[in-house]
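pasting for the record
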Amino acid sequence: MKIDPRRVEERNSYPLKRMFDICVAVIALTVTGPILLVSMLLVWRQDRHSPFYMARRVARGGGDFTMIKIRSMIVRAESTGVNSTCVHDNRITPVGRFIRRFKIDELSQFINVLKGDMSVVGPRPNTWAWGVELYTMVESKTLSVRPGITDLASIVFSDEGEILNGAEHPDLLYNQIIRPWKSRLALWYIANMSLFLDIRICWLTAVAIFDKRRAVSGVVRLLECSRADEMLIAVCRRDLPPPPSPPPGADRIETGFVK
């Protein structure tokens, strides 16, 4: 997929997107503030450690920023050497399972939106070692926009943990069957960015919490209306497990063990 750099730059500087981000972030933090406070207290009570998970992520253009999340895993979970999370991952705490189910752990990222590190809608932020260093030249175009709290892949692959459950090497499986399609969805979003699309994705994200099938159907309709790649549309229907695929810009499926 070719992306005109001038169009991307114009959309990055489009004032309504930043205004939309700020308005949504302020409203979200105001409305969900009590939920966040209760969740933080519950996380702290279970092990007496900070309820926040401060994660270094790759920013737009290749820099770094600190993403703020409500901690859903045990302290220092990243030291286990596994990046991808399965649904029955024993690093997830009892409280963590609940806040993950309703995406409460993501709400604190609206602080990042206010700071300008993230957008409400955009490709999900990644790490260097576990993600961006593996990108193809084509995938690196996803760094041309601010990372987001939600995107189309967050809806289509909201059951990522279930897909990876039981895998001997979840990171490898992730790079074979999820990363390629996530990247294609991110590239499609960048090529079609608009305020209307952001509003639509926000709505579908909310719908997905209670009715994933309906939300996925909404994603498919968006792709069909833009005449997206038929294989991408078929995968997003989620009638079958996502098939292994080379990531955009590559000619082979990942076969090596990802650290």
